[in-house]
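Quick one, tokens below. Sequence please?
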């Protein structure tokens, strides 16, 4: 069983708008077809509402994702995207009311978090507090200060994230992006952070330590960033999956086109359990049981 915690859909009601932005339509109907063909039972939609990437990717926002879930109950769940610069976040307690409103509409988490602010910015801090109080896990796209297109900003070795994990222990942080997954390597250089780094991992990186020290840190296996990080040195990747299997979610980060290739992470995980590189327990936790545990209302 596979539950995909990281998917997007493009604008469904205005497909021509996506096309004018040179994006191929990836509607909810297309997503369901891809799920059926690849054996994915359920997917989580991540809306984009941040000005940094709202129109660039032509990805649907909160209301359209909620509507899609109502159209396919049981097959889809959705997060809500709440920008920390939202005016409701400038006064303590106000942002909680917005989170609760989205929860009542069926949203089960917050993300994809993409606002280009430092991870420890005061507005992010207020959102972390509220998300923890309302039991809404947050899924992040991280970025370095040298590559400011979109994403929460942190330095090499993620010192700001570490501080936030320990300051807000009740809040679940789900990591994603090259800037995050490249920290599996202890010899990561600044200029490599936003790229796909290949080759052996000769020293364990920051992620190993953060996962050991911070029980509220999770990650998803979506996009090329995760697959490359886990497969560049397969034995290290299998070891990471096995050791931290209780805090990893299967994900794909798909939305490019109806004819996109099958995500490589699917067969990587299947081959890992089939060959005994990871345990059946680890495989099941990553592919669906962690999601069912952390998001019980979204079953």
């Amino acid at each position: 069983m596979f539950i995909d915690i990281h998917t997007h859909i493009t604008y469904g009601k205005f497909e021509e708008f996506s096309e004018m932005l040179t994006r191929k339509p990836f509607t909810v109907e297309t997503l369901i077809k891809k799920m059926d063909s690849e054996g994915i039972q359920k997917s989580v939609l991540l809306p984009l509402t941040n000005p940094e990437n709202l129109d660039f990717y032509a990805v649907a926002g909160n209301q359209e994702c909620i509507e899609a879930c109502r159209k396919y109950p049981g097959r889809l769940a959705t997060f809500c995207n709440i920008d920390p610069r939202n005016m409701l976040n400038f006064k303590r307690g106000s942002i909680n009311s917005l989170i609760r409103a989205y929860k009542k509409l069926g949203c089960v988490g917050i993300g994809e978090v993409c606002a280009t602010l430092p991870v420890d910015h005061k507005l992010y801090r207020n959102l972390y507090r509220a998300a923890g109080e309302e039991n809404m896990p947050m899924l992040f796209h991280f970025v370095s200060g040298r590559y400011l297109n979109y994403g929460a900003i942190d330095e090499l070795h993620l010192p700001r994230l570490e501080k936030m994990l320990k300051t807000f222990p009740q809040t679940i942080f789900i990591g994603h992006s090259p800037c995050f997954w490249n920290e599996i390597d202890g010899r990561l250089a600044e200029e490599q952070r936003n790229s796909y780094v290949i080759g052996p991992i000769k020293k364990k990186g920051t992620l190993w330590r953060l996962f050991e020290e911070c029980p509220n840190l999770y990650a998803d296996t979506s996009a090329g960033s995760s697959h490359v990080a886990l497969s560049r040195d397969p034995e290290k990747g299998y070891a990471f999956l096995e050791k931290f299997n209780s805090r990893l979610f299967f994900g794909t980060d798909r939305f490019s086109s109806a004819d996109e290739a099958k995500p490589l992470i699917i067969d990587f995980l299947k081959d890992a359990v089939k060959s005994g590189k990871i345990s059946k327990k680890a495989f099941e936790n990553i592919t669906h049981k962690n999601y069912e545990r952390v998001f019980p209302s979204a079953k």
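The radius of gyration is 18 Å. The chain has a mean pLDDT of 94.
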